[in-house]
Amino acid sequence: MHPRASSLLMGDEDHFTELTALADGTLGARRRRRLEAELERSPELAEALAKQRRAVDALRSVEARAPAGLRARVEAERRERGARRPGVARGGPAAWLRRPAFAGGLAAAAAFALLLAFLLPGGAGGPSVVEAAELATLPAEASAPRSDPAEPALLDARAAGLPYPNWVEEFGWRASGRRVDEIDGRRAVTVFYEKEGRRIGYTIVSGEALDWPEDARRAPREGVDLRRLSSGDRTVVTWLRDGHTCVLSGEGTEADTLLDLAAWKGQGAVSF
After folding, report:
1. Is 0.70 topped by the overall pTM?
2. Domains delineated in the chain
3. Is 63 exposed, middle or buried (0-12, 13-18, 19+ CB in 10 A)?
């Protein structure tokens, strides 16, 4: 067996990274030429590359159809990792595989497991409050909505027929952007607010109400039945407006602040 192929099969992470980068087209030109020369001399290495390419194809399918929460976690991890090793370009679905847990030639098995978990009926477990909260970790894709000229307590943005509150005068939180996603076939609209370098996201999910998370605690305020929980480093508050699930979340923002914002009625302008 070629020594390079042997190191890959035994789980050398650096070599595995190069192979997965070659499979998804993100390996730098110099390293690509060197690795391709080794592939010509090693049937074992060529077979390993073929497996990686099959895994990349499977993961591209997963990435296209995965739940919004999974996409959010992947995007967050990509941002946290920042610059790649020299010679390996950013992005690409094989980046999911460049983690120690997937090293050692297990990419195809990992891809198959992801397909089972997220593509088979019921595998994703349906949309969840946590998935909706994770949308707030993604970047805005549209400009911020403006104040509603007819009602200053509201923004000129709606989701599921519900207007978003305008918190800038009362609380100092200014709308900074928005995005639209889909969770298990449901439209989910997120409006972002910023204050003093902090950012929070307010998501409204269309359709019937989502189940309360098991670890959510009741935190009623101003007559509104709110629930609070944690998701990683984020504090999450969820409640219902006209039967639709609303989710407010942020990192580095106190729970009491989120609860006050969620329960604010704008002198009757914000309906529940």
Report:
1. no
2. 3-119 (no CATH), 129-268 (3.30.200.100)
3. middle
